[in-house]
């Protein structure tokens, strides 16, 4: 049996940028408005993060900075288009992107992280082997330099 939830609504991730013309106190109601749009569409918010004010990679609508927000939620697929349209029409939001999360990739990522914990042990063994090789090499060089046949 799989560890992944087989039934229910698909999980999505929404990253959006709120324009810099607002203060941090004014950004909170805008983020709540987006969260309410998700809830109105029969969605369930799993995680919501505010990454704060960051410099944009390029200028968007004459703004160099924006407030980044990330929301992970479950939503019926039929209501996704309505949510997308509502966010697109919001003047407060400069850019947004909704991505469907594949629950199988989350399991794979956990497995990869667990295997990476083993790698440093292997790397330490390689470093010890390299050190012994260097010692052997130094000894050989010393023997060569001690001989009088060099010239």
Topology:
Elements: E1 11-19, H1 24-40, E2 44-60, E3 63-74, H2 80-89, E4 93-100, H3 103-116, H4 119-146
Antiparallel strand pairs: 1-3, 1-4, 2-3
Write structural notes for this entry.
The protein folds into two domains: about 90 residues, Alpha-Beta Plaits, CATH 3.30.70; about 40 residues. It is about 45% helix and about 30% strand. It contains four helices and four strands; from the N terminus they run βαββαβαα. It has a four-stranded antiparallel β-sheet, covered by helices on one side. The longest helix is centred in the C-terminal third of the chain and has 28 residues. The protein starts with 10 loop residues before the first strand and ends in a 5-residue tail after the last helix. The mean pLDDT is about 80.
């Amino acid at each position: 049996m799989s560890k992944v939830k087989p039934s229910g609504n698909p999980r999505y991730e929404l990253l959006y940028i709120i324009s810099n013309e607002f203060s941090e106190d004014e950004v909170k109601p805008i983020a709540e408005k987006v969260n309410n749009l998700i809830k109105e569409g029969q969605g369930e918010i799993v995680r919501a993060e505010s990454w704060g004010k960051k410099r944009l990679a390029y200028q968007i609508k004459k703004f160099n900075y924006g407030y980044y927000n990330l929301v992970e939620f479950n939503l019926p697929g039929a209501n996704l288009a309505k949510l997308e349209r509502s966010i697109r029409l919001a003047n407060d939001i400069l850019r947004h992107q909704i991505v469907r999360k594949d629950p199988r990739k989350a399991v794979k990522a956990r497995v990869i992280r667990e295997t990476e914990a083993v790698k440093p042990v292997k790397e330490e063994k390689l470093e010890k082997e390299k050190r012994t090789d260097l010692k052997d090499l130094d000894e050989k060089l010393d023997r060569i330099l001690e001989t009088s046949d060099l010239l």
